[in-house]
Amino acid sequence: MNTILKTQGLNKVYRLGSFPRSIKVQALDDVNLNIESDKPVIVSLVGESGSGKTTLAKVILRLVQPSSGAVTVAGHLVAGKGARPHHNEFLRTVQPIFQNPFEAFSQHRTVDCYLRETAERVGKLQKNVAVETVEEALAAVGLQYSDVRGKYPNQFSGGELQRASVARALIPRPQLIIADEPVSMIDASRRMIIINLFLALKEEYKTSFLYITHDLATAYYISDYIAVMNKGRIVEFGDAKQVLSRPQHEYTRVLLDSIPRLDQRWVERRNRTRR
Amino acid sequence: MIRLDNIVASYTTQRGQVNAVDGVTLEIPDSIVMGIAGESGCGKSTLMKVLYGDIGFPLSLRSGSVEYGLTNERSEPVTTDNIRREWFRHISYIPQSSMSSLNPVVRICDQFVDFPATAGRKKEVLAQVRGFVQKLGLPPESIDAYPHQLSGGMRQRIMVAMATFFQPEIILADEPTTALDVVVQKSILLLLLELQREMGNTILLVSHDMGVHYQVTDKMLIMYAAKAVEYADTDDIFQNPLHPYTLMLTNSLPTIGDDRARRGLPGSPPSLWEPQKGCRFAARCPIAADRCRREEPPLVEYTRGHFSACHFAGDVAGLKETLQAGPKLSEVAHDPSRLMSDLEADR
To answer: Are residues A86 and A69 part of one domain?
Structure first.
């Protein structure tokens, strides 16, 4: 069994306001996750806004220092005390995909130069090899290098640009990709194309995903495991299908009860205009 | 009854005119919740602006008008020309972002009474407002606060309170719960439904979340590339759609407990800058034929109250069966090439 992602006693306290009257916000409260598997997995992290989902992602991505605790990804200590592996080594272990691709890429640079830079700096590749790697990564998401080359972000549609950012994350062949609400900016009719892409990459690139979302239906669709967060704590963790069809924790039930489902109504409609 | 007659609304830009709503003709019955759905850029928010009468540069109404089925103080019928005078009396608007709609430096109570009709009796009106917000599940003191002191859900309740306080006949809600999380979203939507039942007004709701539409609306309008493509009872939209776009839209969404493999709808809508020929959905449609690329299908009533703009509306039921007989996710999950089959087409 390989450890894909492990967090030990992870805490993060934000202080709001200035010194004498500052208040503490416990964004992460003793988060212990241990995901072990021989095969790559997709783990969903769900919860309402303010539950600490994004803070956990930022801690794993080293964008935020945890107050205490440690994170291990595929045997590398990435956050917490003593976590000082080389920066490139870290970037080859964990890569992010963000919610809004138009904000993730600068409007003043072409998208292909982000891809080439990732290959050259993180992958430590020569220029000509770098282009080949970029081509391969773009092919994996169904794009061609000639279509992407020289184009600025505003020349792409949201779905295409999000796929380019998935390609960029794939270039260093990371063990774990953290996708923070990757489809919420994409139109409903094309959302499943990206979701199915994640499933395909899991098979082909052997990459694990941490899929952060508030959409429980897509979480049910793609994930192997699911972690439900509330107020900084993981309140329920387990097999995705099992947790969502037979929730044990009260909060998971509230959450499931609140999503606008397509098969049963909250209240029956009365004054229907019947034929 | 609200009647829309061949609405063409266009934006003036540096590149010229672009029709964001192109020939929508509809009748909306009274006292229902009607949902408007479609992907971004399909013209649903522009249609909302036209209905609200908020037409000003760069938006202009090139043809058509809206009859609201109301009469004003001088007993003239209310149409697009004079709807602005009826704002918040007969028609009100719930915006998406409450934070940028409320004035951040004025207490909420002052924003409630900030119009000439309350001159001289502000205290009386405020007492009513306090009673009303209490009914909506807010503490009465909350209207003494500044907007930033309330949470997102409370602010959206304040917006609902403002829009419904004068019991207008028509309420327009443009993505009213998109910025909120699911638990708060449910409470706001149930509140809106309850108020609608009590007051019997018409609510027009724009949302991109098909789940919200299923939960809340009675009738639905599906828009695609500036056109109305289907208009029917919500149950019919979900169960017996007569337009392939509607079917593909509802069918692409996974549901909890259903293990069918889902597929997205590859491709994107045509650019509205180009001259349009034939059906606008033809390029992405699995049942398109030559006729679809030649003639534009009109919005026709197929069964009573069920309108669709498709030459082959009768074939949609067959397409639905084919889609539902598709493979289970477990069968395709280990086969990357099948999962990725849509990617090549999605340009």
So the answer is: yes
Query: B347, B317, B336: which is closest to B261 by C-alpha?
Result: B336
Residues of A in contact with B265 (CB under 8 A): 189-190
* Distance from C-alpha of B131 to C-alpha of B181, rounded to nearest angstrom: 27
- Residues B297-325 have pLDDT tens digits of 999 999 999 999 999 999 999 999 998 88
Residue A29: phi, psi to the nearest 5? -125, 95
Same domain, A137 and A246: no
Residue A201 lies in a domain: no
Which stretches within B35-121 are classed as H helix?
A: 44-52, 108-112
pLDDT beyond 60 at B344: yes
Measured CA distances, B165 to A232, B86, B104, B261 (Å): 38, 14, 21, 46
Is residue A9 predicted with pLDDT exceeding 90?
Answer: yes
Q: pLDDT, tens digit, for every residue of B158-189?
A: 998 889 888 899 999 998 888 787 888 898 89
User: Is A82 inside any structural domain?
Assistant: yes
Q: How far is B244 from chain A (nearest CA, A)?
A: 12
Order the strands of the A68-73 sheet from edge to edge: A23-37, A2-16, A68-73, A76-79
pLDDT, position A85: 63
A150 lies in a domain?
Answer: yes
Domain co-membership, A74 together with A108? no
Above 60 in pLDDT, residue A275?
no
CATH of the domain at A1: 3.40.50.300
pTM for the whole structure: 0.88
Domains with residue ranges and CATH for chain B: 1-90+198-347 (3.40.50.300)
Q: Which residue of B has its CA nearest to A147?
A: B347
Kindly determine whether residue A193 and residue B329, on different chains, have CB atoms separated by under 8 Å.
Answer: no
Whether A108 and A158 share a structural domain = yes
Domain count, chain A: 2
* Whole-complex ipTM: 0.84
Name B94's bridge partners.
Answer: B173
In a domain, A157, yes or no: yes
Domain end marker among A173, A195, A229: A173
Higher pLDDT, A239 or A157: A239
* DSSP one-letter code for B76: P
Q: Which of A48, A196, A207 is the mutation pick for testing B, counting most B CBs within 10 A?
A: A196
Which structural domain, as residue segments, surrounds residue A163?
103-173
Residues A251, A183 share a domain? yes
| Same domain, yes or no: A86 and A113 | no
Same domain, A27 and A80: yes
Q: Please name the residues between 196 and 255 in chain A that touch chain B, using a CB distance below 8 Å.
A: 196-197, 199-201, 203-204, 214, 216-218, 220-221, 244-245, 254-255
Residues in chain B with CB shorter than 8 Å from the CB of A201 are 336
A83 and A154 fall within a common domain: no
Name which of B269, B238, B261, B258 is nearest B44 in CA terms.
B269
Residue A270 pLDDT: 57
DSSP string, B256-283: TT--B------S-PPPTTSPP-S-TTGG
Q: With CB atoms and an 8 Å threshold, state whether A258 touches B186.
A: yes
